[in-house]
Amino acid sequence: MTVFFLGVDGGGSNTRARLEDAKGNLLGVGLAGPSNLVRGIPAAKAAIMDATSAALQQASLSSSQLSSIHACIGVAGANVDSYASQLNAWQHPFHSLQVTTDLHVALVGSHGGGEGAVIITGTGFCGGISLNGDYCEVGGHGLLMGDGGSGALLGLRAVRHTLETLDGVVPTSDLAQAVCKKLGCNTAAEMVSASIEQPPVYFAALAPTVFEWAKLEDETALEIVHKAARFTANYARLLLNKRPQRFSVIGGIAESLLPYLPEDLQKQCAPALCTPVEGAVLLARRKHQSFAANM
Asked: Structure pTM?
């Protein structure tokens, strides 16, 4: 029987899939929309299957091959037991399925399957460490209750500042004007109407604007970025105090945020060896090998 291995990395902005054969050859990749479980299990499943279908298509394989695939899905929101349980109960089309967090696959990928620590700062924020066979996660509490080093909170803080300028509570700024232009809003009422029910990815899309104006030394943009850097530094020190073999900071805003971290932390950051979706494939292989060894 032909065997395939599928890795999926699902977050608040997009979902990536990678399909390999038994020898480790890349067959196809796929990209779809967000799959954060907190935003809805049906939508997450749809994004996972869209990314998987795209990878199959690139590999010139049909959906009939799904039953030959050993899959590992690392997805945002799986750190919440109730959401992970729902995805584990999925009547999926794969031969086997391992559900874990996006942080777990990122950690495995960042250190090439070895041990270490990682912080993901993208749409959301989380950190984790594997040490002496043990694994634990920190952060990942969501925009409402945490994620102080995330792109979403950078954007949300920029919107809050802009609303205060539109209300006349604080003077306007270049950042506020840029946010108004980006969102196409001229009044506080328009901005609230446009933003109040939006998911984190909506606010994360404003993070590049915040970094742009921070580089230009806009006072408010710098304050927002420095808050995110301090939050990230606190978690980095927590992980580094455990003396991991390697430490990486990855994610959509990592490159922009790193220069604002303390210099000693920057020096301890190592580049990721592999991508999170490659980490997911590695976990799928490990599970299959472990099962085969115990047969």
From this structure: 0.85
